[in-house]
Specification:
The complex is a heterodimer. Chain A is about 0% helix and about 55% strand. Chain A is an all-beta fold. The N and C termini of chain A lie far apart (about 35 Å). By secondary structure, chain B is mostly beta strands. Chain B is built from no helices and twelve strands. In chain B, the strands form three sheets. In chain B, strands 2, 5, 6, 10, 11 and 12 form a six-stranded mixed β-sheet that branches. Chain B is globular, with a radius of gyration of 13 Å. Classes of the chains: A mainly beta, B mainly beta.
């Protein structure tokens, strides 16, 4: 299995620009999570989906952030407009609610975002 | 509120020293517990997990953790660390509904000196 795939791995953009981060979960996993990691705040859960439906978006910082999961194999996290304080590593993770790996999160390599 | 507290933010050890990283959680009901490791520049990987049964759990690379329900703790241990164990370690908890929604601690940075 290829694991959780994220793109881009690195993104440098200017304040005010739109940023779109992409994630392909592990095939067969039915839950998908977006986390943000910073030195100051550690790992924060932004939003998670179960069977493509957003379940909890209470961690989304503000309206500038939005996430979609149009199908079981793809999700996006969009920031519009971006601000310097959004600079962080964004991790996508997936899990299954059935099977031997139940409850375990599998993380992607992360997307490092720098907003100038 | 659900939370995870890791007592040590930064630990420095020499090779062959023993390691114990503290983790306490606040979570109502039955819990599942995890330790993840993040090597420099990499993503988080699972070290070990506890769902039920024997409260002493053995994971990869010689790590183990003990679940003590009465103390709401899940401390990570390794008898003899190696330079390659230099990484950040995260404790996490989720409810038994297994939705995968993990609550992470702030992490502990372990630096092992050769």
């Amino acid at each position: 299995d290829a694991g959780v795939i994220q793109s881009p791995r690195h993104e440098v953009t200017e304040m005010g620009q739109e940023v779109t981060l992409r994630c392909k979960p592990i095939s067969g996993h039915n839950s998908l999570f977006w986390y943000r990691q910073t030195m100051m705040r550690g790992l924060e859960l932004l939003i998670y989906f179960n069977n493509n439906v957003p379940i909890d978006d209470s961690g989304m910082p503000e309206d500038r952030f939005s996430a979609k999961m149009p199908n079981a194999s793809f999700s996006t996290l969009k920031i519009q407009p971006s601000e310097p304080r959004d600079s962080a590593v964004y991790f996508c993770a997936s899990s299954s609610t059935t099977g031997v790996d139940i409850g375990e999160l599998f993380f992607g390599e992360g997307s490092r975002l720098t907003v100038l | 509120a659900q939370s995870v507290s890791q007592h040590n933010h930064h630990v420095i050890l020499s090779e062959a020293a023993s390691l114990e990283l503290g983790c306490n959680y606040s979570y109502g009901g039955t819990v599942n517990l995890f330790w993840y490791v993040q090597y420099p520049g990499q993503h988080l990987q699972l070290l070990l997990k506890y769902f039920s049964g024997d409260p002493l759990v053995k994971g990869i690379k010689g790590f183990e953790a003990e679940f003590i329900k009465s103390k709401f703790s899940f401390n990570l241990r390794k008898p003899s660390v190696q330079w390659s164990d230099t990484a950040e370690y995260f404790c996490a908890v989720t409810g038994s509904s297994n939705t995968g929604k993990l609550i992470f601690g702030q992490g502990t940075t372990l630096q092992v000196k050769p």
